């Protein structure tokens, strides 16, 4: 027999919640919507429904949000806590290639399995709001948002997205307009993986290379999203968000803002501009480097250097930015034979090409100052180029390779200036002499938005005479054609290129064959949750204003919980889309996620990351079968602080399971093969047992405060203390026990609802109001008084906290032990210090 019958009552309660739609949340406009309640929108990072099913990392964040959601509901909030599926993606497609089974079928099977697993954990989701990024009704709006991006440009005056029609009205040409669109076509070197048969985003390259795939650089026509226009706003608007500082820092670094100057050099009649963060070091530039792909390379290279340069350029084309940047340990390069003139002193410096200079950053050309830049220093040493000091450190550190701030030297009119002033002075000089300007640069690149895959959203785009346009909105969604062969074509066109009938939209126009990356669907799913079945709009105004609006301060999703792996990409992409939709007037807030919490990774028992190859993966189904869903939930919350990385321990599961069994036995006793009420619970007033009253109210206080702080492990500890007190007591007032059950309910909803029902309460705990603690029950009602006779302690008494001096004196004098020392003597003096002691002098 199980220590408590979770195997029968857990499925029972799950069925009740399902049938009664207990956690359904009405929207404004619904008959049962209560506008007087405050809203609380809790978001989980929705899972990719993989074939492997749920792992124990999923329930960690999901239990945390479920506890908060149930808590907020009991505290009178309209709680929006939905679940859905990020269901496009490569694994389903690769499985389809292997088996010939359509990805839609495997995706559906996986989703059904995930849903079943999540329901078996008793999460209080509003399943009526379930979204699936692959549903035609969802794809329609993802494509609609793409069309909004296509039909917008970024206005530099207002720093916002605006309708492209404004540019049409201004008489811009077709080419000029296309160059401004937020969704645009660009021919650029991209990361092409021949064995995956797709192009990858820069951010994805390392992951797939680590998995053993080949990734090379190729120039290709691709759809891009102009996220770079939002770089400054994406940095600025991070500031007020309630996010971990570490995540904000990752985003800031990813966006990578640098300020400095552009400086124009002359190379035999050609103007070449470099970007530098240290214009104050201009006098120390001893050579110049162009990126191998720089358009001027072939023009300026001398006849003698032509062969060497061409060979070097070819070799570089195969390297990724990462290999050329951070991972580039051995500097390489070749001289072009040409010379550039330094604008500030007219000196001729040699022009090299080297792969440590990237075409995609700044201007693709640098002035090299080997004395004060590490990479230039290494390069100059290797190729024996001159190194001239132009900055003197403020302390006695070595100037060679000194990259910090100091004082300018060997720099003409800058000599003696501090770095900060020298920067200003040189920029002023550059501007006055038309040799350069102040310049801000960002590391952030535009977002490569097309993939050569079948299982993704097709672009709602048609091509006619080499020109693109969108399909009309009434034709959305554009769904993939039915196909049986999902294999990549081997060319960067993708599998859709094989669907000839589908491609030929009309005699004159063809469909775009690329699809969108998986990020597309996850960029806006939180919005769809607010109004999942709307066929007229991606979200209604009313639903958006209620759930996301700024009138519900501070607006947006109130709490977003998920893993740190999404620190940059998903969170940056979603913020970008949100801002565009905000600019275009479709949303009422500027930022989607007000508060972000990252759950810590759950490691295997061996302290290593769980993985199939290490054989240390824990399957949540096994835990549910062996100990019950409540034990799994409680254990994952008891392991340690939510944000911490922590190893799994089966012993710990047993421990919390024993705790739940204890709670069960406060009310229940075994009766042969079944259970019955033990008779320990009584109808006595809650106030009849002062000790239990106090510990229960302490528990209400602590659990309430801890849930608000997402400090679940400490809340559980307090509930363990309370349970021990109940266990020790002969009788427990039912009213106190039910208050306790309410506290435990968000953590262990099945067990607590079962006990509550057995006790005879008809209303489920989750439909009741959260208990409030009374301060007066928390303070000690009695205090200990030490009684001394002639300076020696003879007794310790418990007296009422408010007892008067006279009462205390009487109690002390009449204590049996005290009497032994005073009988036969005369009491000369009694000193009473209320709350502390009584001193009796007798002789
Ligand atoms: C001269 C100089 C002197 C530099 C000095 C630094 C120190 P951030 O923006 O912080 O990464 N740089 C510019 N464009 C580049 C490119 N396309 N590929 C590789 N390197 C590039 O740093 C900008 C600095 O990185 C620029 O400032 C430039 O080197 C280099 F004492 O110019 B500096």
TrEMBL record:
ATP binds at residue 612. Residues 576-642 form the Methionyl/Leucyl tRNA synthetase domain. Residues 690-806 form the Methionyl/Valyl/Leucyl/Isoleucyl-tRNA synthetase anticodon-binding domain. CDD domains: Anticodon_Ia_Leu_BEm (cd07958), LeuRS_core (cd00812). Gene3D superfamilies: 3.10.20.590, HUPs (3.40.50.620), Isoleucyl-tRNA Synthetase, Domain 1 (1.10.730.10). It comes from the Bacteria. Residues 13-151 form the Aminoacyl-tRNA synthetase class Ia domain. It is an enzyme of class 6 (ligase). Pfam families: Anticodon_1, tRNA-synt_1, tRNA-synt_1_2, tRNA-synt_1g. Its EC number is 6.1.1.4. A motif ('KMSKS' region) lies at residues 609-613. It is found in: Cytoplasm. One of its GO terms (cellular component) is cytosol. Keywords: Aminoacyl-tRNA synthetase, ATP-binding, Cytoplasm, Ligase, Nucleotide-binding, Protein biosynthesis. Its main location: cytoplasm. It catalyses: tRNA(Leu) + L-leucine + ATP = L-leucyl-tRNA(Leu) + AMP + diphosphate. Residues 252-430 form the Leucyl-tRNA synthetase editing domain. GO terms for biological process: leucyl-tRNA aminoacylation. The keyword Magnesium does not apply. InterPro entries: aa-tRNA-synth_I_CS, aa-tRNA-synth_Ia, Leu-tRNA-ligase, Leu_tRNA-synth_edit, M/V/L/I-tRNA-synth_anticd-bd, Methionyl/Leucyl_tRNA_Synth, Rossmann-like_a/b/a_fold, tRNAsynth_Ia_anticodon-bd. One of its GO terms (molecular function) is ATP binding. Belongs to the class-I aminoacyl-tRNA synthetase family. This is Leucine--tRNA ligase. The lineage of its organism: Bacteria, Pseudomonadati, Verrucomicrobiota, Verrucomicrobiia, Verrucomicrobiales. The gene is leuS.
């Amino acid at each position: 027999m199980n220590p408590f019958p979770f195997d029968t009552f857990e499925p029972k309660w799950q069925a009740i919640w399902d049938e009664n739609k207990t956690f359904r949340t009405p929207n404004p406009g619904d008959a049962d919507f209560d506008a007087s309640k405050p809203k609380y929108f809790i978001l989980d990072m929705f899972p990719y429904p993989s074939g492997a099913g749920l792992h124990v990392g999923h329930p960690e964040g999901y239990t945390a949000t479920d506890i908060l959601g149930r808590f907020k509901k009991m505290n009178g909030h309209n709680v929006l806590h939905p679940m859905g599926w990020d269901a496009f993606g490569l694994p389903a497609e690769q499985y389809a290639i292997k088996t010939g089974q359509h990805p839609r079928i495997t995706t559906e099977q996986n989703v059904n399995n995930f849903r079943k697993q999540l329901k078996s954990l008793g999460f209080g989701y509003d399943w009526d709001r379930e979204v699936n990024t692959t549903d035609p009704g969802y794809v329609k709006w993802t494509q609609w948002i793409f069309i909004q991006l296509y039909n917008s440009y970024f206005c530099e005056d207002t720093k916002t997205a605006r309708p492209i029609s404004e540019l049409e009205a201004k008489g811009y040409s077709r080419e000029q307009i296309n160059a401004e669109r937020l969704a645009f076509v660009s021919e650029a070197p991209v990361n092409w993986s021949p064995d995956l048969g797709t192009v990858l985003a820069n951010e994805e390259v390392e992951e797939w290379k680590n998995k053993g795939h080949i990734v090379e650089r190729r120039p290709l026509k691709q759809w891009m999203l102009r996220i770079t226009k939002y770089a400054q706003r994406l940095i600025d608007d991070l500031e007020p968000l309630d996010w971990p500082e570490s995540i904000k820092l990752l985003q800031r670094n990813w966006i990578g803002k640098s300020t400095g100057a552009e400086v124009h050099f002359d190379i035999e009649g050609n103007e070449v501009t470099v970007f530098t963060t240290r214009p104050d070091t201009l006098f120390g530039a001893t050579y110049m480097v162009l990126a191998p792909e720089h358009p001027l390379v072939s023009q300026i290279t001398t006849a003698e250097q032509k062969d060497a340069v061409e060979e070097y350029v070819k070799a570089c084309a195969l390297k990724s930015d990462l290999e050329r940047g951070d991972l580039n340990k051995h500097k390489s390069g070749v001289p072009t034979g040409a010379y550039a003139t330094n604008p500030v002193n007219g000196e001729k410096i040699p022009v090299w090409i080297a792969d440590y200079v990237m075409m995609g950053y700044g201007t693709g050309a640098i002035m090299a100052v080997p004395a004060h830049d590490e990479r230039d220093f290494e390069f100059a040493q290797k190729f024996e180029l001159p190194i001239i000091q132009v900055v003197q450190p403020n302390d006695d550190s070595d100037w060679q390779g000194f990259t910090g701030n100091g004082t300018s030297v060997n720099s003409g009119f800058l000599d003696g200036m501090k770095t900060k002033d020298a920067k200003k002075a040189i920029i002023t000089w550059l501007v006055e002499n038309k040799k350069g300007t102040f310049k801000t640069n960002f590391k952030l690149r535009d977002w490569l938005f097309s993939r050569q895959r079948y299982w993704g959203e097709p672009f709602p785009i048609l091509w006619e005479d080499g020109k693109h346009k969108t399909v009309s909105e009434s034709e959305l969604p554009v769904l993939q054609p039915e196909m049986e062969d999902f294999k990549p074509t081997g060319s960067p066109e993708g599998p859709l290129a094989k669907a000839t009938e589908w491609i030929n939209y009309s005699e004159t126009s063809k469909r775009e064959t690329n699809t969108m990356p998986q990020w597309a669907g996850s960029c806006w799913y939180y919005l769809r949750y607010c109004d999942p079945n709307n066929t007229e709009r991606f979200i209604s105004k009313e639903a958006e204003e209620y759930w996301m609006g700024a009138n519900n301060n501070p607006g947006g999703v109130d709490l977003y919980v998920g893993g740190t792996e999404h620190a940059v990409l998903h969170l940056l992409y979603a913020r970008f889309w949100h801002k565009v939709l905000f600019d275009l007037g479709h949303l009422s807030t500027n930022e989607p996620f007000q508060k972000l919490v990252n759950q810590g990774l759950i490691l295997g028992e061996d302290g290593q990351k769980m993985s199939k190859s290490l054989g240390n993966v824990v399957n949540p189904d096994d835990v549910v079968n062996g100990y019950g869903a409540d034990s799994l939930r409680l254990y994952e919350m008891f392991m340690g602080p939510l944000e911490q990385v922590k190893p799994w321990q089966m012993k710990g599961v047993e421990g919390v399971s024993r705790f739940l069994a204890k709670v069960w036995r406060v009310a229940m006793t075994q009766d042969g093969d079944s259970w019955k009420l033990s008779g320990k619970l009584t109808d006595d007033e809650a106030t009849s047992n002062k000790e239990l009253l106090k510990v229960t109210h302490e528990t209400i206080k602590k659990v309430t405060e801890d849930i608000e702080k997402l400090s679940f492990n400490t809340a559980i500890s307090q509930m363990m203390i309370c349970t021990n007190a109940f266990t020790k007591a002969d009788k427990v007032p039912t009213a106190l026990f039910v208050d306790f059950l309410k506290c435990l309910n968000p953590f262990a909803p099945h067990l607590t609802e079962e006990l509550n029902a057995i006790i005879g309460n008809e209303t489920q705990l989750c439909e009741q109001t959260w208990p409030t603690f009374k301060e007066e029950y928390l303070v000690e009602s009695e205090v200990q008084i030490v009684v001394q006779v002639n300076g020696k302690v003879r007794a310790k008494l418990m007296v009422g906290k408010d007892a008067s001096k006279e009462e205390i004196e009487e109690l002390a004098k009449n204590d049996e032990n005290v009497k032994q020392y005073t009988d036969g003597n005369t009491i000369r003096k009694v000193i009473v210090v209320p709350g502390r002691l009584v001193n009796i002098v007798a002789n």
